[in-house]
Amino acid sequence: MVTIPDPHLAMVRPVTPRTPEGCEECLRDRSPWVHLRLCLSCGHVGCCDSSPLKHARRHAGSAGHPIVQSFQPGEDWRWCYVHEGLA
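RESULT FIELD:
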């Protein structure tokens, strides 16, 4: 079986987390989060889909940046919000 790479991987750039201390919007609004995701196009740090406000998914949709990486210590997997799968 041939695996075709996710075409959105072309949008991945070297990024610096904009708010390494937590979810950018949750920090501003003083909201809780569960886990963090790093946008691999711009460095936005957002909260995961298990978090109440799902800021990483919202950012992916509004900014058109579909690929995130887990921003949890010891994790390095990537996710594509367009294809709803590992990237």
